[in-house]
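Put briefly, the fold is written as integer tokens. One such record reads:
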Amino acid sequence: MCLGIPGRIIETSTSPTGLKMGSVSFSGIVKDVCLEYVPEAAVGDHVIVPVGVALNTLDEAEAMQILMDLGEMDRLAEAALSD
């Protein structure tokens, strides 16, 4: 199983092989991502990205909720380790 992280598309392009690509920001860390499976995705949209390929789009509220939930999971894991 792979964890999909939400990110915001800041730029789109086409690869030399014709694939739709994008620069996606994950809380300030920018990665190149294949957008071929989300052809409707545009600059400013949020996408879920497991292993470098965007699989679906989501609105900003959903993206922020997922990021908050992941942060809470991290805090709970740290608390469990300190017990």
Observations:
- Helices lie at 60-82.
- Residues 60-82 form the longest helix (23 residues).
- Strands lie at 5-14, 20-26, 29-34, 46-49, 56-58.
